[in-house]
Amino acid sequence: MARNAPRKVAQDTLIVFILFLAAAFFSYLFRIILARNLSLKDFGLFFAVIAFLGIINIFRDLGIGQSAMYYVPRFIAKNQNSKVKEFVNKILKIEFWTSIISMLLITALADFLAQNYFHYGSIITIILFAIAYFFNSLELNIQVLFNAFQNQKIYAIHNLVRTLLILIMTVFASFSVYKNNVNVYVLGQLFTYFIVLIVFGLIFYKRLYPRDVKNSKNTIVLKELFMFGIIATGAQLCYFFITTTDTVFLTYMTTLENVGLYNAVIPIVTLLLYLSMALSTVITPRVSELTAQKKFDDIRFLWEKSIKYVLLATLPLIGLLVLYPDLILRIMFGEQFVAASNTLIIMGSGIIFFGMSQVNMSFLLSIIGPKKNLIIYAIATIVNIVLNLILIPKYSIEGAATATIISYALLFIISTVVLLKIIRLDFKIWGFILIGISASAYILLVNYLKNSLDMPVFAELILILLISGAVYVLLLFALKIITFSEINDMKNSILK
């Protein structure tokens, strides 16, 4: 059986993963600069507003991004270029007008939001965020189209350039006399989004937009597009609640200081998701194309390999977060954020469930559309909201983290059961048990060495990583979880 599609996925995933990691590095530097220059309350306000705008973005998007990932690869696979052009034209118009309306709505409600929801901040801060949000919405739509056309390299470069420019703007602001003013950092984001929109909008138009294709009338029914979008919007809304309900509820039910602490934990655990994010980015349009071509053997093969390597890469990193939470928070954000150590342990322990769920939901969206995703997300969302309402008043940020992780685990279990039935694949649990045994041995060895060695902390950490990492790799080969032939196949597919 040909493995061209999986090999292409391996190549693109590696490229996207590396560029995502570089973008993550710039993003962490950005957060560190904010944490060092803003008060904990202003730091919390900054990310509380971003979380709030995430809600608006779900309704503004109308599911257009996911519909592009579903339809465009199918049209391309069937050489229906006129439909591709018409589809792109329609979604660009829809995105523009919904972004305008959203910006005006946020601006009109700026005073109300500052006084009654955030309980802090000025009208100017909210208005600046609204304008930045407008440009960000448009440039994000362009980025989604790069992925829909399966040009993942430019998709990832787009993301990298955005984070790098934001970092540059933030560095300049941190050397100015206004370095303690949150508004100067919002302005930096606004200018960045505008520049990125212009640059990558032109790249998309010149390289991917089907300019030489004549428009054909009535090839795509808007009702069909909006029905898909409504279902996808419901799924995105549930996704938002699962990933940001904690921040929203913490903002309303506790203090901005708690929001600031919690948002020091989020970027650290998000680092563990970058492989699954890269896989999902590449997989969604690819599996949509494979489904149109009825290559279900390749789809089954892709899923098994994706879950396997997400586990192999993520479990050892989880061990480090659980064993060194104080050190990681102190290095990344400073002494005042060490108070979030228990939260980091909780989030780090269960974040793997969300990583694997991302992969599952990408497969489901590509194969059958967003309906199943909506149902699965809705179940996990209800559990998430109820648990947040119960746990946050009693346990604050630790309660928010616990509620989130339980909902992630439920999301993974349900999505796995549904997906395996659809692709008709028997779950080979023994291989995953062996991965768990190897990772557990690694974590136990790290803990033993941590308690046994008496060295400067960084020298100790490097030595522990070298010894434990070598044992982990040897176990993977000894238990035949990975083999030399598999490594060679991956190397050849990536270097080809």
Distance between the termini: 18 Å
The computed structural class is mainly alpha
Low-confidence stretches: none
Mean pLDDT: 83
**What is the number of beta strands?**
0
Helix-strand pattern, N to C? HHHHHHHHHHHHHHHHHH
Q: Which bin fits the share of residues in helices?
A: over 70%
Q: Taking Cα atoms only, what radius of gyration do you get, to the nearest Å? A: 23 Å
Shape: globular
Largest sheet: none
What structural keywords apply?
single chain; mainly alpha; 18 helices; globular; 496 residues; 0% strand; 2 domains
Describe this structure in words.
The protein is mainly α. The protein has two domains: 4-427, no CATH class; 431-496, no CATH class. The protein is 85% helix and 0% strand. It contains 18 helices and no strands. The protein has helices at residues 4-37, 40-61, 64-77, 81-108, 110-116, 123-148, 152-174, 182-207, 222-253, 256-270, 274-292, 296-323, 325-333, 341-368, 371-423, 429-452, 457-478, 484-495. The model has no long low-confidence stretch (mean pLDDT 83).
